[in-house]
Amino acid sequence: MNHIKQFFLAIYISLALTCQDHVLADRATTKDIIVPKISEWQVTVVNGLTTNETLFIHCKSKEDDLGEISLIRFRDRFSWNFGENVLHSTLFWCYMSKDDGHMNVNVFWDDVILFHRCGWKNCVWTAKTDGLYLWNYASGEDVLSEKWEDGW
């Protein structure tokens, strides 16, 4: 009986790795059916620096490097969408810097408290003069999550 389970597991894995991503009805793809995403998410980083500073960000995950971005004006934003993986191990982090400070910070990870604060779909991080804030959909306010480290 173990050989049958291993056989079907091998077929499932080969289909997941080799299927072409054909679009089906209502934005679903063949890959979504074979390797379903747990949930769709959006992460947004906003320049909330009221001192007219440029916010530099470089965000990435283990699989994706989103590049270096300059958010020049107050309220400029950078967003990306992704599906959380089946293993619940999706992690995105960013290096951020401004004129007199910098930080390395996780902006998405598998955590039910984070999910609740993000309204189960959209994490909005705002860089302000004193640190990085996460918009808490549950309480309707920005919550300070990380303070700037001095220097670059």
TrEMBL record:
It is found in: Secreted. The keyword Hydrolase does not apply. Keywords: Secreted, Self-incompatibility, Signal. Residues 1-25 form the signal peptide. InterPro entries: Self-incomp_S1. Its main location: secreted. Belongs to the plant self-incompatibility (S1) protein family. This is S-protein homolog. It comes from Camelina sativa (False flax). The gene is LOC104730435.
